[in-house]
Write a structure and sequence with these properties.
single chain; alpha/beta; Rossmann fold; Hypothetical Protein Tm841, Chain: A,domain 3; six-stranded mixed β-sheet; 40% helix; globular
Length: 280
């Protein structure tokens, strides 16, 4: 059985890595007023954050239409017998459910939707792992068993540079945002039960990053192979410094760099930083 691997744009797997691993991608969209852009196709993360600086109103976001899923699945059916479709958490988007619906509408390919229960490049880890196994000829059931096994060790923590976008997007009340700004509170966020919730509130960015490093150390110090990713919102130099620090400290860690693109960046804002990992 020949199995395709598909994910959505919020995995933010760099294009060259997608192409290297034969991973297909369906884009979500970001909407500025009357203008709609497919992220990773019609607008880059850098272009998005530059545009954001000129706008008073937050953009909105939208999931891929079911018809686009159907069209893509039917195209894949010309070459593949099955597709594993890896998507951002169903708790924050209807994209996964769209894949489920479309999968029930096509007859010539077997669709296996997978809810990553999180997003960004940590979601991408599932697609990369699945792609490697598919190239080895593993069946969809075996690949999905491995992805569910990964869920036991996968971790992701992120923090925002300030609370403005969370407030403007309805994630924080005005009073909470004001108090947070005055006290320099840097909430560490994570996914729990498929939704984004605060993990801890830290007073400064430096302390928040150090706390995330502590959480990472708990796993990395076990001397098992770890695959990690630093995710940034237009902070490539900071991400590179963290990557160098982690790789120098831990010989068992493979560390990638990715980014918060337009859809996720709409809610987190420029300057957000995250760290995700799993045991290989």
């Amino acid at each position: 059985m020949k199995t395709a691997i598909l994910t959505d744009s919020t995995a933010y797997i760099p294009k060259e890595l997608r192409e290297q691993h034969d991973i297909y991608m369906i884009p979500l969209s970001v909407i500025f007023g009357s203008e709609t852009y497919q992220e990773e196709v019609e607008i880059t993360a850098e272009q998005f954050f530059a545009e954001m600086r000129t706008k008073q109103e937050l953009p909105t976001t939208s999931q891929p239409p079911v018809g686009e899923f159907v069209e893509l699945f039917e195209e894949l059916a010309k070459t593949y017998d099955a597709v594993i479709s890896v998507h951002l958490s169903s708790g924050i988007s209807g994209t996964y459910n769209g894949a489920v619906t479309a999968g029930n509408m096509v007859d010539n390919i077997k669709v296996y939707p997978f809810d990553s229960e999180l997003s960004c490049m940590v979601q991408g880890f599932y697609a990369l792992e699945a792609a490697d196994m598919a190239k080895q000829g593993q069946t969809p059931d075996v690949i999905l068993d491995r992805l569910n096994e990964m869920k036991k060790t996968i971790r992701a923590y992120f923090m925002v540079d300030d609370l403005t976008n969370l407030q403007r997007g309805g994630r924080l009340s005005g009073a909470q945002a004001l108090i947070g700004s005055l006290l320099q509170v840097k909430p560490i966020l994570h996914f729990e039960d498929k939704v984004i919730v605060p993990f801890e509130k830290i007073r400064t960015k430096k302390k928040a990053l150090n706390r995330v490093f502590e959480l990472f150390h708990e796993d990395a110090s076990k001397n098992v192979p770890i695959r990690a990713v630093i995710i940034h919102a237009n902070r490539p130099d900071e991400a590179a410094e963290i990557q160098q620090e982690l790789e120098q400290k831990y010989s068992n860690v493979e560390c990638l760099i990715s980014y918060f693109g337009p859809v996720i960046g709409t809610h987190l804002g420029e300057g957000a930083i995250g760290l995700g990992w799993y045991q290989k």
